[in-house]
Design a protein that fits this description.
Blueprint lengths: L4 H10 L6 E6 L2 E6 L2 E7 L2 E4 L3 H7 L4 E2 L8 E4 L6 H12 L12
Antiparallel strand pairs: 1-2, 2-3, 3-4, 4-6, 5-6
Helix pairs in contact: 2-3
Length: 107
């Protein structure tokens, strides 16, 4: 099931204080970027944040799940998705450990 644009817009609005947030459509789902770093996916109207050591410490009781079959587990954010301050802080903390997204080579 593809994600709903309204849900993606809600997620982007919730984390707007974490940097320059953009969402890019990918195969019916969305990649969420902050300052050109891919840090999360929205799949089936659920938010999956890339796991980091600092993010795990910040969350505490982490729920992990794969955003799609065959994917590595990510932090599944459900209960706190409505808490903009908490979610923005999680993203800011996580971004310190995530590498810049590699540019794709043009064919």
């Amino acid at each position: 099931m593809a994600s709903d644009q309204n849900f993606v817009d809600f997620v982007v609005e919730q984390i707007k204080n974490a940097g320059k947030i953009t969402a890019k459509k990918m195969f019916g789902e969305y990649g969420i970027y902050a300052d050109e770093i891919l840090f999360a996916l929205v799949c089936d109207n659920k938010l999956f944040v890339k796991p980091t050591i600092s993010g795990r410490a910040f969350i505490g009781d982490v729920v992990e799940a794969s955003p799609y079959e065959g994917a590595k587990p990510s932090f599944l954010i459900e209960e706190k998705i409505g808490d903009s301050d908490w979610l923005s802080e999680l993203i800011r903390i996580s971004l310190t450990e995530l590498p810049p997204t590699k540019a794709r080579k043009k064919k």
